[in-house]
Amino acid sequence: MNNKIFSPKITAVIESLRKLPTIGKKSSQRLTLYLLSKSPETAIDIAKSLIEATQSITNCKYCQALTENEICEICSDSKRDDSKLCIVENLLDLVAIEDANTFKGKYFILNGRISPLDGIGPKELKLDLLEKIIASRNINEIILAISPTVEGETTAHFISQIIGKNIIISRIGFGVPFGGELEYLDQQTLLHAFNSRTNI
């Protein structure tokens, strides 16, 4: 960073933005300069929204989605099918499935994948909470909507081992390439993958 060009406060904003996923040095510089020189009102609005959100957002006690209430809208919706539970890696995967309008059950968000090298194990994915949810509901099918990566395969295998034998376990996969991330699939591909799921 050229400290002769950017003041300490500008540099601080640039470095903060670089902490965001997919934001590199040039992108963080462009965003910072735009917000400070072209649209300071937008910068203030973003700051206020982020502060308010961080103070009021929590995780749903059942699915771990981000919500302002103890229980999210999907989990509290009596019209959703309680007998089907879809396990996804992150909230964006849930959004992608909802956008495809193919699933009307409930969800559980892992917020990651088992990855020993990164220090992520069953405890970090709240699999103990998942076991409690399965035990407390009359679930007849669990759908593993987990990306077909090495870590995803490991995670899916581990989850399948802790689920009772009287529950159908299915996995989406048709049309999803190995290493592919669900959130980047188009709706038609995801719809086909979901409807073509296979039991494991």
From TrEMBL:
PROSITE patterns: RECR, TOPRIM. A zinc finger (C4-type) spans 60-75. Residues 83-177 form the Toprim domain. The keyword Flavoprotein does not apply. The keyword Metal-binding applies. GO terms for biological process: DNA recombination; DNA repair. Coiled coil: none annotated. InterPro entries: DNA_Rcmb_RecR (IPR000093), Rcmb_RecR (IPR023627), Rcmb_RecR_Znf (IPR015967), TOPRIM_dom (IPR006171), TOPRIM_RecR (IPR034137). Keywords: DNA damage, DNA recombination, DNA repair, Metal-binding, Zinc, Zinc-finger. One of its GO terms (molecular function) is zinc ion binding. Belongs to the RecR family. May play a role in DNA repair. It seems to be involved in an RecBC-independent recombinational process of DNA repair. It may act with RecF and RecO. This is Recombination protein RecR. It comes from Allofrancisella inopinata. The lineage of its organism: Bacteria, Pseudomonadati, Pseudomonadota, Gammaproteobacteria, Thiotrichales.
